[in-house]
């Protein structure tokens, strides 16, 4: 008998209630200008003289001698001058990399690493940074992609030096920042630093306003940092700044760009911390091009490759689910070289259950947020590490082919597009290099079955069946035809599935359309209207509560 709509073929009838048990040279490439120079000074001229050959032996001898001299000159040029010339040209080329925000890999994918703020706030010092760096290696975190170690606020003295530089705090960072970044780099990691677009940082240490060029050089060239998190506190008065938020963050964008131009190094990764107040997802990606658009020639900047979208995260489910809700409306903004930053992870800090922690990590990863560990690594539990090191989840975040975030296809508890910080969108999907990924979130305080029709996702083909891989149990979960049901998803839990096309669905699968809305036979007879209600001038899908009659 042909299977019916809604049938799920499950190899393992997975109950999602069992996660708690889980532990765990002239050579190719010579610059054109160089070849021209070689011809002008050497062989080209000698050949021209050959063509005007005169039968006077002495003159011929002179010419031969001249030819030899010129040839020798050319050869010695090649041997002694060329390498330097070539190097200059190469340097110019490298410097060129800093010019084009898309000619390097900085910030192409969401960056992964460690940030000191959530675990330590202002209580940081060089011993802690050394330990953290070593633990990132020892615990295998670097191996799965966490390669930035970022200092947040409170690493400096309260005042700049007499010459105007920020000074590393003499008590907490006595060996200085260059030694620190040398240590970090020595372990194969990159290093990040923090500053602020205003007069002060949020903890009232020196900000970079009016010192952007100086500070960018200090951070990147003198201290050796590769990333700059740039905050939003202590905004100068209007009559001084005479800029909006875009202008305020453009100043450091220009500084990083100009520094990269002068040093030939790739730009520092520019990580904006604007808390989503003035919609950075609309403008942060374009920061480097804005003056050109405004007709201001000569000024260019780097794009911000990542921008915070919300206020600070708390180690509580309510905070995680609220951030998820707010980001559900702007998930479209993330793509290569520009990402919604949902804030530092709270995984491992004690305020979230295991299920909530997995939901938090999955959502951040699938929504292409930077993944920044924010817990005390020395005491991280096996469970915490098993979450942070789930390579099947990380692979979606770091997909080299698809840069976009998952997006919701159904809200679930609430009507679609409802803004609700407790019950945000529950049903999400997105493309990956290996298939379509789904994320189901149970926002209820009790276990729930969660079902979806496959073609509710735009990435699924009608009339096909799909193999299902569970990215948390790391098992195959049968083949789905038309729909999939996850049973007993724990309270605040997540289901993460990767669906791969497994060929045509069985012949004769009924009904004729997986999605009935406006599906017709050749005569125009409609199949739909179940589950919809009039709304404005059209229809909207009924909520699950309405369908259940509750
Ligand atoms: C906040 C920022 C936090 C942390 C803190 C440091 O503005 O959102 O992530 O950097 O400043 O004072």
Automatic annotation (TrEMBL):
Residues 24-34, 539-550 have a biased composition (Basic and acidic residues). It catalyses: Hydrolysis of terminal, non-reducing alpha-D-galactose residues in alpha-D-galactosides, including galactose oligosaccharides, galactomannans and galactolipids. This is Alpha-galactosidase. One of its GO terms (molecular function) is alpha-galactosidase activity. Residues 1-34, 531-550 are annotated as: Disordered. InterPro entries: Aldolase_TIM (IPR013785), GH (IPR017853), Glyco_hydro_27 (IPR002241), Glyco_hydro_b (IPR013780), Melibiase_C (IPR041233). Belongs to the glycosyl hydrolase 27 family. The lineage of its organism: Eukaryota, Fungi, Dikarya, Basidiomycota, Agaricomycotina. Pfam families: Melibiase_2, Melibiase_C. GO terms for biological process: carbohydrate metabolic process. Residues 423-499 form the Alpha galactosidase C-terminal domain.
């Amino acid at each position: 008998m042909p299977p019916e709509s809604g049938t799920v073929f499950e190899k393992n009838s997975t109950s999602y209630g069992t996660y708690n048990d889980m532990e765990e040279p002239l050579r190719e490439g010579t610059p054109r200008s160089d070849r021209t120079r070689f011809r002008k000074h050497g062989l080209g001229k000698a050949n021209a003289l050959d063509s005007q050959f005169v039968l006077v032996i002495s003159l011929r001898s002179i010419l031969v001698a001249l030819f030899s001299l010129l040839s020798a000159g050319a050869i010695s040029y090649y041997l002694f001058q060329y390498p330097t010339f070539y190097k200059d040209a190469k340097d110019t080329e490298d410097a060129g990399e800093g010019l084009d925000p898309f000619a390097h890999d900085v910030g192409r994918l969401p960056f992964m690493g460690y940030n000191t703020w959530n675990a330590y706030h202002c209580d940081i010092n060089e011993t802690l940074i050394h330990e953290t760096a070593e633990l990132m290696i020892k615990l295998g975190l670097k191996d799965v992609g966490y390669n930035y170690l970022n200092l947040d606020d409170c690493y400096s003295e309260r005042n700049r030096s007499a010459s105007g530089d920020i000074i590393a705090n003499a008590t907490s960072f006595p060996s200085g920042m260059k030694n620190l970044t040398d240590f970090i780099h020595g372990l194969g990691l990159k290093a990040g630093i923090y500053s602020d677009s205003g007069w002060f940082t949020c903890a009232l240490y020196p900000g970079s306003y009016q010192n952007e060029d100086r500070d960018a050089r200090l951070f990147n060239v003198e201290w050796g940092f590769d990333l700059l998190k740039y905050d939003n506190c202590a905004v100068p008065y209007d009559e001084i700044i005479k800029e909006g938020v875009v202008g305020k963050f453009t100043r450091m964008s220009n500084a990083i760009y100009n520094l990269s131009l002068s040093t030939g190094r790739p730009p520092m990764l520019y990580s904006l911390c604007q808390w989503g107040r003035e919609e950075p997802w609309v403008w942060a990606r374009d920061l480097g091009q804005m003056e050109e658009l405004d007709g201001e020639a000569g000024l260019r900047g780097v794009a911000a490759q990542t921008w915070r979208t919300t206020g600070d995260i708390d180690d509580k489910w309510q905070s995680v689910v609220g951030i998820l809700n707010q980001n559900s409306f702007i998930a479209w903004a993330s793509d290569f070289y520009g990402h919604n930053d949902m804030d530092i992870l709270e995984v491992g800090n004690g305020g979230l259950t295991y299920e909530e922690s997995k939901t938090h990590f999955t959502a951040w990863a699938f929504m292409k947020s930077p993944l920044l560990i924010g817990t005390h690594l020395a005491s991280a539990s096996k469970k915490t590490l098993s979450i942070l090191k789930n390579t099947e989840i990380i692979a979606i975040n770091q997909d080299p082919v698809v840069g976009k975030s998952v997006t919701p296809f159904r809200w679930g508890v609430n009507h679609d597009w409802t803004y609700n910080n407790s019950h945000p969108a529950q049903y999400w999907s997105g493309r990956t290099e290996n298939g379509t990924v789904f994320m189901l979130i149970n926002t209820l305080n009790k276990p729930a079955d969660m079902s979806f029709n496959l073609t509710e996702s735009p990435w699924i083909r009608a009339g096909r069946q799909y193999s299902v891989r569970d990215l948390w149990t790391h098992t195959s979960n049968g083949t789905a035809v038309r729909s999939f049901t996850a049973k007993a998803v724990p309270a605040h839990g997540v289901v993460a599935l990767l669906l791969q096309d497994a060929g045509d669905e069985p012949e004769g699968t009924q009904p004729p359309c997986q999605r009935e809305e406006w599906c017709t036979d050749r005569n125009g007879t409609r199949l739909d209207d179940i589950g919809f209600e009039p709304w404005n001038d059209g229809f909207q899908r009924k909520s699950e509560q309405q369908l259940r009659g509750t």
